[in-house]
Amino acid sequence: MDFKSMDVMKFFTVSNTSMCCALALSANVYANEDAKGYSIVPYIINGNEADVAAFPYMGLLLKDYLDTTTTEYPNGYLVTLCGSTVLDERHVLTAAHCVEAITDAQKEENKRLAVVFKVQNINSDIFANTKYSVESIYYHDDYNINNNLSHDIAILNLSEPISSDDVSRNSYVAIAGSESDYRSNDFQFTLIGYGNTGPATSNPNENNSKVLQKTKVSYITADECQKNYPDVDDAQICVTGSIANMLRTGACQGDSGVPLLYRRNNTTYQAGLVSFGPESCGDTSQVVQSVYTELVDYQGWISSVLNGTATPKQAMNETDDDSNNESSNSSSGGGSLGGFGLALLGLIYWNRRRR
């Protein structure tokens, strides 16, 4: 398929041979001034373009190489990674597998992390809009990519406060306070993200999307979810989507960390964030469209990060000697992700030429 590798390539393997990919670190590369671009699949399935003004708390996580001059990218480039949401003016929420770094090289790469807001069109807005660098990274101590991506949650502390011109103080998304709000069969959520519109094909441009997308998905009970993913636990939410255009509606690679939203009493709440899903996005034989980290179970941990009592896994200004960034359980053995082809692309940096 003529894939071109980037500098870093890291594949996670798991014990179950039917496994495959977590909906994420599929990296899209965008050349400065849109001179050349690289992209990969996939994105939200059966979605429609969303007005970013309706979701002001939505952030796009990227790595900034605008200071890098190469023959391929004489004006530098940006690599888009995952979605995120604003918790307060200095913190954004995303998935742990988007930012976990174990080796020194990965930690060095993380120093290029940044978040950009108000991205309606990726090709233009990621260059024009303010990019907020990351000062420190937190993810849950029990996060384990080898054990069903349990505790797949991370918070990024930004180097400077988010300007109210980018995200106003009264427009942060609220974290769900009770699972009883939504844990009923067929409860409707809104899903937003920047991923592709379909699974990989022989045409690298066929399913590309340059804009924020939204769609509707429905809650599915844990008992039903475990038919596809036996190891899903109480701190994860499963959803399904309707079938249209011969694809099942939902998220896909590139959408990791994006929010699962619902409305109650005129307030928008975030119930979860995208963690993983089927090997082939939109697979109609898979009832479970994707699995989300459930935020209500992490309110105490989120508070500990926001109030400064948690220890970061990586602080960008620290030296290797005093680094606290130790792999929690992610390099150890663990349970199988199980099921019918779970998408665990993990941290795979690769790209496909866009013509």
TrEMBL record:
Gene3D superfamilies listed in its UniProt record: Trypsin-like serine proteases
Gene Ontology molecular function, alphabetical: serine-type endopeptidase activity
Keyword set, alphabetical order: Disulfide bond, Hydrolase, Protease, Signal
Coiled-coil boundaries: none
Location of region: Disordered: 312-334
GO biological process, one term: proteolysis
Peptidase S1 domain location: 44-307
Protein name as catalogued: Trypsin-like serine protease
Protein species of origin: Vibrio algicola
